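Continuing from the previous page of notes. For each protein in this section, the sequence appears first, followed by its structure tokens. Read the first protein now.
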Amino acid sequence: ILNHTFDGFAANSQRLRVHFTNGAMDECDVLIGADGLRSQMRQQIIGDGAPRYAGYAVWRGLAEVQRDDIPQGQPSETMGAGARFGIFPIGKGGIYWYATANLPEGQPEPFVGRKQHLLSIFQNHASLVT
């Protein structure tokens, strides 16, 4: 149901009943929890508390890249002081990439200039990163 906020669910032997904060309900056979980092559904199922900061930030993306130094079908990871950069070819010139950097919790990321920010973090890594 669009424009509703998940509140909880109840299960019986046949169906799931989903409850929303506005009092609405719905029934379904399958319920997929895609309600974000502070998932209300996860709390109901696992109840493991708030997320714990692991000490690093992560950026991810998909790109079309045609470069001779990215072998088709071979993933790679470049590591440096407090940072990692990984590439996974996904076919037809496409790659999935990720970058991690050790950063203090809550450090704001610039909305404008994000690419330059990442390039500055990885400026001393292999040329494959840039």
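Done with the first. The second protein uses the same format. Note its length before scrolling.
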Amino acid sequence: VPKCAGTSLNKALYPDTTLGHRSAGLYQTFFPEQYQHYFTFAFARNPWDRLVSAYSYLCKGGNPRHDAAWQTTLQRFASFDEFVKEWLCAENVVKQIHFAPQHQYICDNTGVVSLDFVGKLETISEDFAYITQELGVDVQLQELNRSRKDDYRSYYSDASIERVLDVYKRDIQLFGYQFD
């Protein structure tokens, strides 16, 4: 899932390979045998926090090969709060992988979570320890590609909190998140 520690996880578990953001449904379709028998996992993140992270990442240019136009798009808005209130809607979030709902990556082709484990960014140390135990590997997780250091809650007004709740309702329900 984009903006859920993918770079850090990738480098720790597969240091010589760069993996992209692919959905569980894609793996289920193209690698059905492995999907059924391998240990499968993903990470989710508080949608309000993830959105601020994605916005910050893209405002700084994101991946220059894929995200260059988004920096210009986001500069049209005076603030993050304005961006959320004026741009964020179900039709728009699917236009950029960093804004796409997390359930689109984590749910399988039937729309349910069939992964063996869904960790949370908020408990990444414990969850990563569980994953490495399941995989039988002894590797360390480093923090890479962090977009910002301040508290996501400071970016929101009451109206933008509600907009995120509306747009990412399924993620919030599926993974048990609240604004705070």
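What the second structure shows: The first helix runs from residue 6 to 13. The CA atoms of residues 32 and 76 lie 43 Å apart. We return to this in next week's lecture.
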